Amino acid sequence: MRLKSWAAALYVLIGAGSGVNGIWMLVAPERWFARVPGVTDTGPLNPHLVRDFGACYLLVGAIVVVGLARGRLTRAVHVWITLFFALHAGIHTGEILAGHASYDHWVIDFPGVFLPVLLLLVLSLPFAWHRRAPG
C-alpha cells in the first residue's frame, strides 16, 4: 500500500520538520534550547542530551524522506514513526499532568509535540492509503 498524494504531502511536512529540527539540535543545541518555545521550562540545558534527541529526529526525518522518495514508506514504518511521536507526546502529557510543566504547555507544545501525533493518527486511517491492486 502507498500513501495518497495529500497524505504524502503531510508526511513531507513531518519528515522535513523532523530532519530540520534534528540538524538544528545536533549543530546548535544551545541555540535550539534558547529559541524553541517552552524548552527552557524543562530545566537546565544538557547539550549532550539535546544532540542525542537531535539524532533521533534526524533519523525519523531521513526515514520519511527516503521512504517517500523510494515509494517504500510502509504501514509498518508509519507505525514506528507514529509510536516515536506518540511516546514523545505522552512524556509531555505526563509532565503537564504531574505539574512539572504548566498547563500553558498544552498550547506551547501543540505545534511541535501534539500536532504531529494528531496528523500521524489521521495518516493511520485507511482512507490515507491506496490499496494495492489484487494479483
Descriptive report:
This protein has 135 residues and is mainly α. The protein has one domain (2-130). The protein has helices at 5-27, 29-35, 47-70, 75-97, 105-108, 110-123; strands at 2-3, 129-130. Strands 1-2 form a two-stranded antiparallel ribbon. The longest helix has 24 residues, at 47-70. It starts with a strand and ends in a 5-residue tail after the last strand. The mean pLDDT is 93.
Short description:
This protein has helices at 5-27, 29-35, 47-70, 75-97, 105-108, 110-123, and strands at 2-3, 129-130. It is mainly α and 135 residues long. The chain has a two-stranded antiparallel sheet with strand order 1-2.
Distance between the termini: 13 Å
User: Which range does the strand content fall in?
Assistant: under 5%
- Please give the largest β-sheet: 2 strands, antiparallel
Please trace the helix and strand order, writing H or E for each element. EHHHHHHE
Low-confidence stretches: none
Rg, please? 16 Å
**Beta-strand segment tally:** 2
Average pLDDT rating = 93
